[in-house]
Amino acid sequence: MRNKTAASRIVLQLGILLALLIACLTPQDGLAQKLWSQVKLNRTSAYIGEPIEVSITVYTSTWFTSGLDPGNIQVKGAYTVYFRPVSVSLSEGGTTYPGIQLIYHVFPHSERDIVFPSLTLEVETPKDGDYIGVKHHLKTQERTIKIKPVPPGFDKNDWLVANGMYVSDYWTGNLKQVKVGDVLERRISRTVYGTVGELIPPTAWDSIGHISMYPDRSLTKNNKGKTSISSSRTDGMRYLFEEEGQVTLPEMVFTYFHPYRKRLYKKTLKAITIDVAANPDLGILKSVRDSLLVQEQEVIAQQEEEQPWSFMGLSPEQLALATVLGILVLYLLAKTIRRIIHTIRQRKKAYRASEAYYFDLFKKATHHDHAEHAKQALYRWIDELKLGQPTLEYFVGQFGTDKLQETFDTTGDLHGLYMQTQEWKKARAKYLLHRHPTPSKSSWINPQ
Asked: N or C terminus: which one in the chain shows less Cβ crowding within 10 Å?
């Protein structure tokens, strides 16, 4: 009895020691380090140009031993603006988790849905109970954003989404003293809040009678703050006054759509009236016009150089896709043509080995009124038929028309009938019907 009790105590002690050893070697869920990421959007659908805020946050149950700053990224079909990382925290279940938040503003510029890609972030944070940072790689989730087209009733060319806009203009030259041949330059500047300069539409200049207009180079600029962005665009126009009298430059209206108030706002530059005086030296008008034309060509050339490379209006991606599709179409076309040629050759080969080919040769000989050739062709055709006896007499007896049989039975010879193609056509049709009978429709009725 004592031996059994001692043995039970030993087994119990060994079990307790083993449990303690497993507990020491195996990390418990409550003590294991937690490290995860979250991706949030302030909206899942947006208009063209409407900003989407994408926040990527990384949380840890310890702390970060180094910063997290992946920089800006490329999103197909959109412009992106990256702001500096921000320290945040999350309280959950009585525990506070420190985090680093990355904020991106995404501005779609086409009607296609865009995908904010998955990112692989390198994070350095120590394990629980340690202080030495360990590198980890977290992969974030990609998010799809649905893009809505410009609402009905709005001009796509003037569409602009912004939180606010300030418009101003200034002139180079004296508007009060203008004569024929003078050139005045007007520059219109727009400061827009909540968008990028690439999305500000160009100024629409109305043509004016008795004035030649020469556009100047446009300038755009982005100004990024800690958590917001503004931009500006300046467009210039040179006015050449060609006739004396009074001219009026019409008012100019600039609009923008507020993404949060869902309203369209307008900014207006008032109309300007200018009195143009006569100029006795009219010869200067031509030289000024020529000079402005040269400057205009230089501006156009500079703008073309700044434009992304394209071929016949296609971007590199579109050209690559068109090339691949073109190669695929050519491949399928070549394959189809080869298949058609092979089929034609096989049919031609089968036709040349058929009785129809030799019967056609026989008909051709009769058409050329060659009796001897027709006779040879007829016998050659008979050789291709599957007859009980491979003789002309057997064929006529079995499948010949009444006229063929009567002539053959009377004279024993078919001389003179070689040229009667219609009789042989009827005989051949009877032979083919015998070889390949047409299935008849069944009239059998299931009895009741």
From this structure: C
The pairing of beta strand 45-47 with beta strand 133-139: unpaired
Give 10-residue mean pLDDT values along the chain (448 residues). Answer: 56 59 43 81 92 92 83 87 88 88 92 91 86 87 92 88 94 88 90 94 90 88 89 92 89 93 92 88 64 64 57 67 87 90 88 83 76 79 82 81 74 60 82 73 44
Q: Per-domain residue ranges for the chain?
A: 35-148, 156-304, 355-435
Rounded Cα distance between 400 and 433, Å, is: 13
For residue 257, give the nearest of 145, 164, 168, 147 by alpha carbon. 164
Which architecture does CATH list for 35-148? Answer: Sandwich (2.60)
Question: Where do the DSSP E strands lie in 173-228?
Answer: 178-179, 183-193, 211-215, 219-224
pTM over 0.90: no
Determine the Cα–Cα distance for residues 6 and 8; give it in Å rounded to an integer: 5
Rg (CA), the chain: 46
| Among 112, 115, 108, CA closest to 195 | 108
DSSP-based three-state secondary structure for 210: coil
Q: Where are the beta strands (DSSP E) in 157-209?
A: 164-172, 178-179, 183-193
